[in-house]
Write a structure and sequence with these properties.
The strands form 3 sheets. Strands 3-2-1-6-9-11-12 form a 7-stranded parallel β-sheet, sandwiched between helices. The protein has a single domain, classed as Rossmann fold (3-Layer(aba) Sandwich), CATH 3.40.50.1360. The radius of gyration is 15 Å and the shape is globular. By secondary structure, the protein is of the alpha/beta class. Helix content is about 30%, strand content about 25%.
Length: about 180
């Protein structure tokens, strides 16, 4: 769903990836849209997402780190304490995460508790948190909140975003980019 929006968001986020840094990618389809276009350069990738691992495994210059943990077939991800322990060991410069909803008061939320716990830890550990969220996710909320707005460094959404929703997010101090 929202394929064109996710591709536009990915193109906008691509400029944030440079060699020599460590990036974390969650298991979202929006983060994977970014993963699918990143070049094979010397940087480190940390992830709990099987699809992200599978994509990067053939790249020569990328240092790939799997979090390990309990594999969840429904979400094609690794979760649990092993996953969280692995995340804690790495200096993550930028975490690229998505969500089910962004509530202007409560922040970003997720539909699966285990994924929310992983994202919550990424938000706590990363130097910068980039929330990749198409416009349908603004003013929405899901079951499990994982980040307050003040924990998010920037949001990249698409040009169809409701101007009032974007204004509220910007008024809270967030850097919001509208991808073309």
């Amino acid at each position: 769903m929202q394929v064109a929006s996710k591709q536009a968001i990915a193109q906008e986020a691509l400029s944030l990836i440079v060699p020599g840094r460590t990036y974390a990618f969650d298991s979202s389809t929006t983060a994977f849209a970014l993963v699918s276009i990143v070049p094979d350069l010397p940087y480190r990738v940390v992830t709990n997402a099987y699809a992200v691992l599978e994509h990067f495994v053939g790249m020569e210059h990328v240092e790939l780190i799997s979090t390990g943990g309990r594999y969840r077939a429904k979400t094609h991800t690794f979760t649990g304490q092993t996953t969280i322990d692995t995340l804690r060991r790495h200096n993550i410069h930028t975490a690229f995460v998505s969500c089910i909803g962004i509530d202007p008061q409560r922040g970003a939320s997720e539909g699966f508790e285990q994924q929310a716990l992983i994202k919550e830890r990424l938000v706590q550990l990363a130097e910068e948190v980039v929330l990749l969220a198409d416009s349908t996710k603004l003013n929405q909320r899901s079951e499990y909140f994982f980040a307050n707005l003040d924990q998010i460094s920037r949001i990249i959404t698409d040009r169809d975003a409701d101007p009032l929703a974007v204004a509220k997010l910007r008024a809270s101090g967030l850097d919001v980019t509208l991808a073309e």
